[in-house]
Amino acid sequence: MFGPFRITSSLSGGLLWKIPWRMSPMQKLRQRRRLRAVDQVVETVAKALAKKGETLKSLDRWKEEMPTEAQMLPRDKYSMFDRKAKKYRKGIHKLPKWTRVSQRVNPPGY
Amino acid sequence: MSFFRITLHRSFIGMPQRTRDVLSALGLHRRGQIVFQTVSAQSAGMIMKVKELVRVEEVDRALTKREVQDSRRPDKGFWLESRVGALNGGAKAKATGEGEEEVRL
Fold first, then answer.
1. Neighboring chain B residues of A40 at a CB cutoff of 8 Å
2. Contact status, residue A54 vs residue B41, Cβ threshold 8 Å
3. Domain definitions of chain A by residue range
4. What is the ipTM of this complex?
């Protein structure tokens, strides 16, 4: 149990990465900023295209389907659906490349 | 004519090949790089593909590569007074053959 030859999961299994169960307040702050930055990009593009009178399918779809940071619930900002997780939810920081991908909507009812 | 001023803010390391291809089509190859694209549905579509990685502004004029470099260059901390020799005793400076520039901090 104690001493130099104790069995821990990292000693017996080698590499062990642990992701905390919940996000820290600072992680959440940065997540909100990233969401807002993406909103800003979409807004800028939409405004510029509207000035020229052009339309873009991907832009229209995004505007229709995706909520902005202000419209999102905290639940959706910081966690996401997972069918294997307890209560079908896991922290969004468990998503691979989570700081560089958009994950805003979840299945209805979950 | 207006332009998108696109800055690659986040690295594309580990991103899918499609995303990397879109970035290179936009002309972005390293983080922090700034490119200008004309406002069109085509460029807007490419920006939408990589919206998580870039910062976008709409500007009236596209800067050249040189102008972008100059705008990003930090202040040197000193400047050269090129006419100082002519102002105080130009003859003396000529006689000693010293340069007419003085460094001010």
1. 55-56
2. yes
3. 22-94
4. 0.82
